[in-house]
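Lecture notes, continued. The same structure-token format from the folding unit now serves as the input rather than the output. Read the line below as a description of shape only.
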């Protein structure tokens, strides 16, 4: 695994192996001395063209825990703001010694382009590209499910709810969870639920209450991505809350043994109520913690292979 651009880069065995390494890394993170010498002398560059809290910071801590040097580049404080292209930026970073570029970009396909165009020989890890994929998010979500239900996810029923259309998280989760044998249902308003997603091997639904009544093991709520919507979403916000929010009233319909997930950042009161986000069944903060272990595992595998 020289790059991680898409969940499609993984076989079932390689995904399970990556999750197993991540579980080992989470044990390292529980020790009093959390550092491993594994990537000493290697340089990881976080190149972010979009804002991020969880992904950028966890990649930074992950690289530091593995003793790599890490540099953070934000588009608006670099020469990208003067019009420098992705190719020139990446070649400049490689000339400065980058062994791995972790890329977040608003364009779907940007990470694939960087990994395959022959511009650089550094490894590329996709930290979210447009509405396409967010593979490390899906891996940390799967690790969270394994910790709740066991390593074998093949009997799991996962309901992913909300703004499916703009969600790279939903796409990567659908690919990974179906690869691991879980049953995935995507539920959302028709305008935010592209019918072609059935090609991913998932069920589609337009009725959140009916989907909840079916008793899924995992209820994953998605952020409403107002910044990617061209239409004025504000007008339909109250309708959205009525039909699609995991509101305090709807919380009683979630099975007592189920877990509640959300990739963050959350819009409290829109797709999820504070009460649901802070319910004992919520794993939202555990997802964040697992992001660190998964990103350690990914950097370790990508840079070990590259070496
Ligand atoms: N879930 C996620 O990608 O969060 P950030 O945008 O804060 O990185």
């Amino acid at each position: 695994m020289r790059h991680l651009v898409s969940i499609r880069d993984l076989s079932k065995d390689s995904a399970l192996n990556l999750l197993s390494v991540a579980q080992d890394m989470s044990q390292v993170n529980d020790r009093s001395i959390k550092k491993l010498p594994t990537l000493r002398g290697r340089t990881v560059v976080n190149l972010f063209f979009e804002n991020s809290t969880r992904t950028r910071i966890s990649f930074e801590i992950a690289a530091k825990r593995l003793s790599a040097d890490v540099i953070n580049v934000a588009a608006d404080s670099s020469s990208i703001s003067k019009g420098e292209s992705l190719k020139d930026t990446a070649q400049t970073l490689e000339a400065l010694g980058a062994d791995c570029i972790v890329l977040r970009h608003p364009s779907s396909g940007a990470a694939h382009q960087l990994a395959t165009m022959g511009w650089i020989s550094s490894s590329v890890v996709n930290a979210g590209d447009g509405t396409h994929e967010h593979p490390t998010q899906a891996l940390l979500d799967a690790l969270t499910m394994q910790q709740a239900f066991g390593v074998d996810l093949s009997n799991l029923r996962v309901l992913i709810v909300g703004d499916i259309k703009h969600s790279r998280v939903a796409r990567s989760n659908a690919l990974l969870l179906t690869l691991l044998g879980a049953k995935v249902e995507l539920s959302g308003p028709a305008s935010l639920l592209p019918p072609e997603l059935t090609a991913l091997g998932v069920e589609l639904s337009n009725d959140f209450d009916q989907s909840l009544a079916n008793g899924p093991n995992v209820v994953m709520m998605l952020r409403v991505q107002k910044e990617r919507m061209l239409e004025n979403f504000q007008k339909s916000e109250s309708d959205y809350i009525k039909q699609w929010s995991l509101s305090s009233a709807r919380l009683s319909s979630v099975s007592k043994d189920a877990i509640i997930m959300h990739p963050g950042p959350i819009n409290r009161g829109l797709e999820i109520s504070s009460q649901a986000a802070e319910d004992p069944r919520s794993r939202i903060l555990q997802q964040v913690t697992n992001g660190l272990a998964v990103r350690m595992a990914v950097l370790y595998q990508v840079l070990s292979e590259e070496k």
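Point for the exam: Residues 42 and 68 are 5 Å apart (CA to CA).
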